[in-house]
Amino acid sequence: MRSLVAFLCLAQLLSHAAARSHPLLPLRDPDCDDPDVELAAMEITQHVNSQLQSGYKYRLNQIDKVRVYPRRPAGEVYVMEVDMLETTCHVMDKTPLENCTVRQLAEHAVEGDCEASVLKMDGQYKVLNVKCESNPDSAEDVRKVCPQCSLLAPLNDTRVVHAVEASLAAFISQNQSTFYKLLEVSRAQISPIQPSVYVEFVIAPTDCGPKGADDPSSCHPLTDQYGFCKGTVTKKDGGEDVAVSCTISVPLVPAPQPDEAVPTPAAAEPDVAIAAGPDVAVAAKPAIAAVARPAPVGPVVRPVRPFISHLPHHDLRHSIVGVASLESASGEHGPVVGLAAPAVPGAAAPGVPLCPGRIRHFKV
């Protein structure tokens, strides 16, 4: 019995000594507008946009929550919640994110909510996991801002599908160079005032002539070339008016380096505007020397078939197709592997963080 008591006492002494030599590290609750936190939030935003397969790019709007955990053997993990807003730039558009305009409330804005873990090590940030969803602003809020504004409509609504088909047919009928295929229905709004439908959709030029082929499925989209289109179909007595404009994006030749031969300048991305009706006009910008734009972060894969969602927008919940390595965090915000434990009882409590952070655009 004495031996057992002595053994227990020895175990307690050893445990106490180990605790003193390896004190538990406290977690940290920084302000949501802390510069390091903002850098982590920007990394989340870039990562989300790099993973999107459909719909539009998002920009950071607000940082809601943040907590920082020490990570063994080095680094820190930022566990965060951020809000983002949909922009007018499609995910296949090569326009840099900072040049993309946030879609306004009157256009029926869409907000994205994300939870993510970001590893900071040696001054570098890496997204470990991310989980997002997105929702349009409520109809009531849109009506408060603009009573006559059109609301988002389901992308598979029969009126929407017809408007896309009619707009694409009008574009192809006036284009004399190639045959285009529909890749995605991106956005749709139905006017509450007049019987008209507004649509945004993505097309791609193919290797077929302007009239296509006997079997359109044999026409293959050209690599890294897209058309971003906006169309409006308005009902009238005895028929309908169709107005459509498309911006065709083609690969650009990078600027030559000083020690390289100067190649023939590539044509700039043309803006082709087509209005279907009594007077049909086709206008294009003259060719000028092109400047290469930065490519979007991460791979963007075209859908094999036209993507038409039953929702009124492309939900981030379904659009993000992958996450970075989960080496230090679980995918469901469970216990974070490799992190130091919270502070021991009695340790000094951290100050109250200033969260949520500032709003960069507007609140949805």
From TrEMBL:
Keyword annotations: Disulfide bond, Glycoprotein, Phosphoprotein, Repeat, Secreted, Signal
Matching InterPro entries: Cystatin_dom, Cystatin_Fetuin_A, Cystatin_sf, Kininogen_Fetuin_HRG, Prot_inh_fetuin_CS
Compartments in which it is found: Secreted
Gene Ontology annotations of biological process type: acute-phase response; negative regulation of bone mineralization; regulation of inflammatory response
Gene3D superfamilies assigned: 3.10.450.10
Principal location listed in the UniProt entry: secreted
Keyword Disulfide bond: yes
Residue stretches making up the Cystatin fetuin-A-type domain: 23-133, 144-247
GO cellular-component term (any): extracellular space
Keyword Phosphoprotein: yes
Signal peptide as annotated in the record: 1-19
Taxonomic superkingdom: Eukaryota
Molecular functions (GO terms): cysteine-type endopeptidase inhibitor activity; endopeptidase inhibitor activity
Protein name: Alpha-2-HS-glycoprotein
Gene: AHSG
